[in-house]
Design goal:
The chain is mostly helical and about 160 residues long.
Length: about 160
């Protein structure tokens, strides 16, 4: 395991079991919600295989795959789309390692902070064998990473996550 286990604080009514979200609901989400869910699922896939690399090309292919899969399989779940992903598509350009993502970059890149938080939550969820996410946990995780990175611009996400415990 690349990051420490995190106490599971996901126990309120605002939680979502991502593994149970049906494709027909995913298809009806707005673009931002779809993007966040795809980032979470990519993080979850990474956490399941201890792969912390991310690539914009890969993300675009994953997003399109999930859109196509859910259009053709509306009663399936979004997580099942990962099992239907053709293996050649798993190979793609990886642009950076998320856990080495610097606090300096996180601080400067306001536009992608929430995407990063959703990826990290997905990754941690897989590491803790949990497919649940919720608003309170996302807020706590976001606040923690933002505060840590503002106070430690020379750190990275691994440092921020280690400080959660």
């Amino acid at each position: 395991m690349l990051v420490p286990a995190v106490n599971d604080v996901r126990a309120n009514d605002d939680q979502t079991d991502v593994a149970a979200v049906p494709c027909n609901e995913f298809s009806d989400f707005d673009g931002t919600t779809k993007s966040m869910m795809v980032m979470w699922i990519d993080g979850y896939a990474g956490g399941s295989t201890d792969n912390t690399e991310f690539g914009h090309e890969w993300y675009a292919r994953l997003f399109q795959h999930m859109m196509d899969y859910c259009k053709s399989q509306p009663s399936a779940t979004v997580m099942s789309s990962m099992n239907a992903l053709p293996k050649p598509q798993l190979n793609g350009q990886r642009d950076f390692d998320f856990l080495q993502y610097t606090c300096e970059t996180f601080n400067l890149d306001e536009s992608s902070r929430m995407m990063t938080i959703f990826w990290v939550d997905g990754y941690l969820s897989a590491q803790n064998d949990n497919t649940m996410t919720d608003d309170a946990w996302i807020e706590e995780l976001s606040s923690h990473i933002l505060t840590f990175c503002q106070n430690n611009p020379g750190g990275n996400l691994t440092d921020a996550l280690s400080a959660l415990n």
